[in-house]
Design goal:
InterPro entries: ADH-like_C (IPR013149), ADH_N_2 (IPR041694), ER (IPR020843), GroES-like_sf (IPR011032), MDR_fam (IPR045010), NAD(P)-bd_dom_sf (IPR036291)
CATH topology of the largest domain: Rossmann fold
Keywords: Oxidoreductase
Structural class: alpha/beta
Largest sheet: 7 strands, mixed
CATH superfamily of the largest domain: NAD(P)-binding Rossmann-like Domain
Number of strands: 15
CATH class of the largest domain: Alpha Beta
Number of helices: 10
GO molecular function: oxidoreductase activity, acting on the CH-CH group of donors, NAD or NADP as acceptor
Shape: globular
Length: 357
């Protein structure tokens, strides 16, 4: 029997607008023992956590349970995350002590993952990994999101001439840009980001023909210039005003991929967010027969091998490369990653490396 003093983050109170981590989360120390394991359980040690915008929705008190793609995390529950964990003790067939896994688990330095936990995202909850764990965390979640979003939902092909991507310097957007330019050979790839430095990265590292800073006073004019031939595919990660602008520039039978709406996640009641789409813009949906489709990447879980069979060679051939930012954090500081993400402080995939004392 081995005992561990585990530090685990629980949801103290589901938050409203403008999340306050001190009010939303509570750190609890619990004693865990490998003797606590039952058949099918895994005792895990955390090494890396993924930071994803969707986690904000999971704990937003204004999220309507029946309308979410998954149940929200309730008050008193462990805060969930995707992460890279080491198997300390296994009672699950096929997993050995010392294995590293990509798991849908918790903000905790040590935790027990049960068979019930593994039913949250069937087919996407637990995967053995090899190689650089941060590459796997980046390619295995956001890379696959970019792949299915652009190629399946957006139905992008080499025949398209203009692809626009918002939050283009983020985890998913940066891969979308590279697939569009370096795999499909799209003539005009337009990336939108929130700083001049990120725009420079989009041009140098992601192949963007235009990189637009939405904070620039000339952004609207720059956007019109970059999309003068109109848009075949708009990959939307932000919603709001930029979605409105894109709708006004869509080609006939253009496609909008709704991957996220990070500009709205702190306003789930719809006060600010609902003001983003104008009547003029929405009329373009029927006037130009524009298709808007949302998706959740786990719906493609059964096609994961196909995606990796394409993505891994593209990575090896240099057609795509993974842009990631890793920050070291004690378990006590882990919630700060959510704030970094929503402040736009990261470039590419934001990964928390858990420092064990």
């Amino acid at each position: 029997m081995t005992k561990y003093s585990a530090k685990q983050w629980f949801v103290k109170e589901r938050s409203g607008d403008n999340i306050n981590v001190e009010e939303t989360f509570e750190l609890v120390t619990k004693e865990l023992s490998t003797d606590d394991l039952k058949e099918g359980d895994l005792f895990l040690k955390a090494h890396f956590f993924s930071n994803d915008p969707t986690q904000r929705i999971w704990v937003n008190k204004d999220s309507v349970k029946e309308r979410l793609y998954r149940a929200p995390i309730e008050k008193g529950d462990l805060m969930e995350t995707y992460g890279i964990y080491e198997v300390i003790e296994s009672r699950r067939t096929g997993y050995e002590n010392g294995d590293f896994v990509l798991a849908r688990a918790f903000w905790a330095d040590y935790c027990i993952l049960t068979p019930i936990d593994l039913t949250i995202d069937p087919g996407a909850t637990l995967t053995k990994i090899m190689g650089d764990p941060t590459d796997f965390l980046t390619l295995g979640i956001t890379g696959i999101t970019a792949y299915f979003g652009l190629l399946t939902v957006g139905a992008a092909t080499s025949k398209d001439s203009t692809v626009v991507v918002s939050v283009a310097a983020g985890a998913t957007g940066s891969v979308v840009c590279q697939i569009a330019k370096n795999v499909l050979g799209i003539k005009n790839v337009v990336g939108i980001a929130g700083s001049d430095a990120k725009c420079e990265l989009l041009k140098k590292s992601c192949g963007c023909d235009y990189a637009l800073n939405y904070r620039s006073p000339t952004f609207k004019r720059d956007f019109e210039e970059a999309t003068k031939d109109d848009i075949d595919v708009y990959f939307d990660n932000v919603g709001g005003e930029i979605l409105d602008m894109a709708l006004l520039r869509m080609k006939e039978y253009g496609r909008i991929v709704s991957c996220g709406a990070i500009s709205m996640y702190d306003d789930m009641k719809g006060g600010k967010a609902s003001a983003g789409i104008s009547r003029e813009a929405w009329s373009q949906v029927y006037c130009h027969k524009v298709r808007i489709e949302g998706f959740i990447v786990i719906q493609f879980a059964d096609q994961l091998p196909k995606a990796l069979a394409d993505l891994v060679p593209w990575l090896m051939e240099g057609k795509i490369h993974l842009i990631k930012e890793i920050w070291d954090a004690r378990i006590e500081d882990v919630p700060q990653g959510m704030l970094k993400l929503f402040k736009g402080e990261n470039t590419g995939k934001l990964i928390t490396k858990v420092i064990h004392s």
